[in-house]
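Encode chain A's predicted structure.
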Amino acid sequence: MTTGNTGTNNTGYYNSGYYNSGDRNSGYYNSGDYNNGNCNSGNYNSGNCNSGNYNSGDYNNGYYNSGDCNSGYYNSGDRNSGLFNTNEPKMRFFNKDSEYTYSEFSKKFNFVYPDLKICAWINKEDMSDTEKAEVSGWSDMGGYLKTLKYKEAWAEYWGRASKEDKDWFKSLPNFDAKIFEEITGISIESKKDTLKVKDQIYDKSEVEEALKNIRPIKWHAKNVTQSIGA
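Encoded structure for chain A:
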């Protein structure tokens, strides 16, 4: 215990809480200075779990916030990333603004948190020749533990996700399949049947719909007399 501490397990000075590595903290698990809350890594916070400075709210990454979950400065509202905001902003989905704040969205939509695994066990029969050449001990272990890249983790998750969970992502406001694929690597656009006519590709369903609106041409036989000159 360092001089001036009234709590326990402090490495800083003049702390009255516990497990503080900064100075003059009255809360717990602070690594900054002059914090009255808990789990702060910044300074002069009276809230909890702040990584910025001078916050009286909770879970702020910016400075001088009295609201919660702000990454900007001087906000008294919640979940703002800008400056001097007193309300809660609308959420953006797929690069566009939506009609929902976070609070409104959380009430309307049940959250689905994708269980992305950073590692996956690969059985030896599923290993490629390259993997077998690069991984030592796979034969004795019956496979190996593979570290997944971000999009690989999404592919692994998507392979076992329920239809309900997949539909949840597609039901999000402003859903954009191309942006979703850009971020996750998952392509969920349905493949369209096409028709090729004189080197032009047409959507089959659109052609069929257009044909429904065309009135059929009725041909009427007429008596045609053809004279053949001698």
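The longest helix spans residues 150-160.
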